## 1
Amino acid sequence: MTSIVTVFFAALPLFIVGLLLIGLLWPATRTMPVAWLSAVVIGAVVWGMPASWIVAASISGVLTAIQILFIVFGALVLLYTMLRAGAFSTLNRSFTTVSEDRRVQIVLVAFFLSAFIEGAAGFGTPAAVVAPLLLGLGFPALAAVVAALIGHAIAVTYGAVGTPIIVGIREPLENVGYINQVLAGNDQTATEFAINVAAWAATYHLLIGFMMPLFAVGIVVYFFTPQGSRTMEPIIEGFQRREGVRVNTIYQGCGSLNAQMSTIREQNPDQGFPDAYLACDVYYLDPVSDWFEDKATVTKTRIVIATQKDNPYNIEELEDLAQPGLRLVIGHASHCTIGGLTERLFKAEGLYDEIMENVVEQQPSSGMMVPPVASGAADASLAYYNDTLPEKDRLHVVEIDSEYANAVQPFGIASTSRHKQLMLRLYRFIGSSREVFEELGFGWELGRSPDDFELVAPSGVRPPRVD
């Protein structure tokens, strides 16, 4: 049997795991038994392993898995203990005290803390522990997961107190007599060889380790900076300086924010219910309007069609997006406001089925609408007008003639807030920043009732939910 064939059969169970978990989205409870069965068949048929060897190897695998589960169990106990004790709120306040700069928070939490947890526990616990911390600091859900996964990657080789080196290198070498003889001829034991492997791995990690925080920061800043944060952060900073207070801001899709608020019992501020809410659109304020008072609009932004600079499909109106072969990117209706508003727009204009045939990607954030078009990966996307401005030299923007192609941002003060006067002053401070908003492409609608912008949802549109 050739070495290539041997390698193929040895790797086949791993390919099966990847195909079923990632390609077909099977749960691990179904994938792993199939992978184990394939390994048993390959071992018996290809290598002619006796049944006793197969049983012994399976028992050894179970014992190794139990050791790993003990490590993961400890990490999860820590996670849920912190959740129950309210430790996440304390940690979030501590990180905010260190720096309010999101880039610094990514380096501290998503890189250093995530790498530490990977080294202590491993097996995915950095995403389970660090991602909720980033959520509490105001990062979008997907950005929190992406940052945590990128941040801990450099420590994977030494995860769970060196499990990959011990279980993946030292123990297999110790159990193969021929390899032990080779190592002995070089005055090495399997343990010494594994230590040398770890040292060389550390050298390679050192070369790229300095780039990982930069990579994580770049990904999050480029793809996940919400349209509101670019505008609001300098305004909030100015308000904090004037009032001598600290305002904790959370930037996420309104669907996610509404869902989070619904889980807070009796809208209790002590459990994290916000003092004020600047919603993405009046459409998303309506389901939670009973929890807020003194509601008034602030700004308006247009939903436009962004195409490549030369507009190769000659798109002039919404129905042109149904042209055969066109590659369209839109927001995901369940994950971000622009996705929900896009679905409403398509159905209001009676073009939903025709246009959806050309959708090649549904993005989880408004900040991810423009890059695919600017890079040539898509022919068009539906985006907020102000999100197209940074790439205006590489895009052609088409206005949409529909009353549904607008997003109006309302502001409301929580009925349970203990800082109503402070939040009222915040609203007035925002109202004094008209030039800032207009420079970034927003329209000005300060002081109007959200009811002035209510639109009837077309048939078949899923209304925003809070559960």
Note: The CA atoms of residues 10 and 155 lie 26 Å apart.
## 2
Amino acid sequence: MDHMKKLSTELQVVLGCAVLLFIFSFFDWQQVSGFGVTFGLNEWHGVGVFAGLLVVALLVWEGVRLYGPEMQLGGLSEGLISVGLALLVALFTLITFLTHNEARHWPAWVGLLLAIVLTVAALARARAEGVQMPEPRTAASAPPPPAAPEPEPEPAPPAEEPEAAAASEPEPEPDPEPEPEAPEAPAAPEE
């Protein structure tokens, strides 16, 4: 237990929530009672299987991070993978919660809450570790396209002598006279 006290608070919350979410995934998330008989379905039905498997994957991954060797994962950091797994756990738990909506039982609410707390703690842990989160690209946040190279200025034409300039200027044309307005047609008599 002394080893657990040495872990960061965020990691303790992530591990605790993941273990509890795994346990609560076996409780009835949907439950119907009638005539002295109770029937229920846990999270491990339908899309909830993915949520349960992702919780197991997150626990294994965090165990490898704690006790395994340093890993080189290309451009991905270990903290970023932890955040990705936590986000996927939250996503699939939310989908399970929404699709298992008939006769929802209290463990479904506890599971959803645990998934949210787990994700928030994983994000806080990643920020504390200095993990750079990729920024989503939108049209507003995208960098502007590179500017086109400016054309080289053309050399100025040689200056003309004032007499030659006066001779080469065309005379302005007179304004055309406006056309006379046409008289209005008489209105047709009303019947």
Note: The helical segments are 2-6, 9-24, 48-67, 78-99, 106-128, 162-168.
## 3
Amino acid sequence: MRVLLAVALVLVACVAHAAVARDTRRQTLTAASIHVHDGDTFHVGAQAFRLRGIDTPELGQPRAGPARERLRALLHSGPVIVVPRGEDVYGRTLVDVYVGGRSVARILNAEGYAKRRPKPRPRMRRSLSGSLDMCGSLHIPTTRATWDVPG
């Protein structure tokens, strides 16, 4: 009886783990709904998506056109699976994108259209004692308020 209970608990744990591991936020897009902006950004309607983890040349820079066309070709080659991962400073949704089970960002990087984008490091600022805090501003302690300074 105990063995049966232990097996049942293991099965329940496995099913619960599989349910959590499956990403329910993923979307499948059709090629007709996608408008490619540049080599790492595309739109579906009013929503902008940015490929996570890579950087391609900006429009007007050398190799921007080929990068844009390669992204367009990849996104139009089959069903596109988009997995949201966050938002960038411009309000675009950061996504992992897959076509045919392959990562679009990895393909662009491997083919030389993109370079890996390093994860941003937190910026340090000084604390009130003159050390750095997390936003990069220097705070110098003072005994007088700024409005008390003779002028």
Note: Residues 59 and 65 are 7 Å apart (CA to CA).
## 4
Amino acid sequence: MMTAPVSDYIHCKRHGGCLCKLLPSDLDISGFPCVDYSPAGKQLGVHGSSFPALLALCAWHRQRRTKLALLENVPEFPISVLEALMGDLYVVKPFYMEPSDSGCEFLSRMRVFILLMLRGQGASQNYTSILRWLCLATPPPVGKLLGLELW
């Protein structure tokens, strides 16, 4: 699965369903389905129906060698799964955040953000600088949550 070729094209709703070429990117900020890990879901983990979506996302990053990815999910997601799938190519650094720490007072559920840093790019050596860069628009409590002095 991880060595299967990924397509450079995707069906594009914006352009009437035609195939549009995906441009290369050094940064991806996204997430993957949480239903197989969430307390609100069936908690089937890697045996759940959405696990192939995570495998496809990992295969995409592996083939593209995305330098930096920030992935969001539920805190129950086992980080060891991403470490097993991506740890040979990426440094995997999770951090947990309450929505209120970033000004989202009306949300109540904690989230996990998983930073994937391509090995050999220098980024993995200084992830605090990367977090600072990613969190510039976020209030200082995030740094306290992470146990870092970002500001």
Note: The radius of gyration is 16 Å.
